[in-house]
Amino acid sequence: MLVIRFNRVGRHNHAQYRIVVQEKSKAPSGKHIAIVGSYDPHSKQTILKEDEIKNFIANGAQPSDSVYNLLVKNGVIKGEKRAVKLPEKKVEEKEDVAEDAGKDEKKEEKNETTKEDVKEEKTEEKKENVKEDKTDEKKEEDKEKKVEEKK
């Protein structure tokens, strides 16, 4: 199936588009059948080969929503513009994220209590290690004294 779509060209931060006819399964920047126009969104300059576009559409080529709106705007095709919007699934995800945030807060509270417990355990371990070190030092001192007494 043929499709009429935008092919991005131009330099970084200054997009320009070719309007190309190509197979739907091909990548937009891939091999195309024909270049039927160009569009510069910065200067709003549009160049269209109207007779070729009408011929391809008559033979079954489907324009993308954005190209369709551009063709309607320039009078190549008669009809109403199509709505080009992002799907509403992302709005649902935001609600889910808000619910998840409440769960995360509860988890954080649990984590805080466990963090405090871990800190207390570590301080106790350090104290025990210090006591062991002191007892080890006393043992060594006792050994040294015994060795000195023998001499």
Number of strands: 5
CATH top level of the domain at 2-73 is: Alpha Beta
CATH architectural arrangement of the domain at 2-73: 2-Layer Sandwich
> What string, H for helix and E for strand, traces the elements in order?
EEEEHEHH
Beta-strand percentage range: 15-25%
Helix % is 40-55%
Secondary-structure content class? alpha+beta
Q: How do the strands of the widest beta sheet line up side by side?
A: 4-3-2-1-5
Structure description:
The chain has a domain at 2-73: S16 Ribosomal Protein, Chain: A. The chain has three helices and five strands. The chain has helices spanning 50-58, 65-73, 89-150; strands at residues 2-9, 16-23, 34-40, 45-48, 62-63. The radius of gyration is 37 Å and the shape is rod-shaped. The mean pLDDT is 80.
